[in-house]
Amino acid sequence: MWLLYGANGTTGRLFLEVWHKSGIDLPPCMLAGRSAHALQSLAEKYNLPYQTFTLDELSQISLQGEPKIIVNFAGPYAYTARPWLDYCLRKGIAYMDISGEWRVLTDMYAQQEAFREAGVPVIPSAGFDTVIGEGAVYAFRQKYPQARTLHLGVYARGGYSAGTVRSALVTLPHGYFYWERGALRPTAFSGVERRLANGKAYHFWRATLAELVTAPAWMSDLEVLHTWIALPPRYTRWRPLLEKVFAWQPFMDGLLRLVDSQRARLAREMDLEASTCLFVEAPEVPEWLYVASRQPYVVTAWAVLQSLQLFFREGAFPGVQSAFGRWREKLWAGIPGVQTLWKARSSPA
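Predicted structure:
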C-alpha cells in the first residue's frame, strides 16, 4: 500500500490516467487530499480507496492501510513538505515528491542525518525538471567526466498547472543563485541566447532550479553549476516590479488564491502533446548536449511511475537523495520519448 496526496490536482489526475493506461503493476494505492467530493469521483473511476484530511490534521489521524511510502503531489512545497516530512520521520515511512523548490530541498538535505538515523528514505524531485535535468547533466559527464563547470538550460512547453505557478511565485522573491564548490552563491539576474537543434534562437534567463541542490549532492566532483530557463524577453521588463510586490505577503496570499481559482482553466489549456528541450554545455569541451522530451507533466507521470516501481522492487536507502540520484540509468530508461543529440560547439548551443 502507498498513499498519493494531492491526487485531485492537475498532476495527480494525469498521473492516474497514465498509470491506468500503462498497465504498470504497482501495489494498491490510497488517494488522499482535502476534497471528499473530488476524491470520491477519482476513487470510483479507478477503483481505489481514499481518505480525506488536511495537513493540519496529520498529527491527529491514522492513515488507512499502513502505507510504505507517501507520494506528495501537492504544492507549493514550502507549505506542504514539512508536515509530511515530520510525519514520515515519526512513523518511519518513506517519502517522495516532485518538488522543484530549491529552498525546500535545501532544508531537506540539512536533515540528512536525522532521516538516515531513523531509517527513512526521502526521495524528492521525482518530476520532469529535476529528473530530466539531472539526467542530462549525468549524460554529459558520462561522455566528458573532466567537465566540472556546467550550464543547464530548460525550455518547458505545453503550459503550467496552478501548482507549478504557485510554487514559482513562492520562490521568486528569494533571489538568484548558482552552485560553486559546496555552496549556493548569489548572483545577478542575467540572460543568454542559445540556438537549439532547430536553429531557432531562444532567450534563457537565470533561474535557481532544484538541480543546484540535488545534483551536487551525488556528483561530488562537480565544481560549478549554472541553471537557466527559457522565458519571453518581455519578462525582464516586469521582473523588478514583480519581485518587489511578491515579497509583500498580503499581496502574495491574494495572488496564490487567484491562481488556485484558475486551476481548471490552466489544466484545460495545457497541451499534453507539446515537446520540451534542455541543453547542457561546458566551456572546456567541444560539444554541447541537446535533450528533447515529451510534455513536462507527462514526463512527470512516467518518472514517478518508474520511481515507484524501482522503490518497491529494489527498495531505497535511508536519507535524502533525489529520484534520479538514486536510480539513474534505470529511471532514465523507463521514461518514454527522451532523445539526446550531441552538437559541435561550432554550432552554438
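Summary: The longest strand covers residues 287-294.
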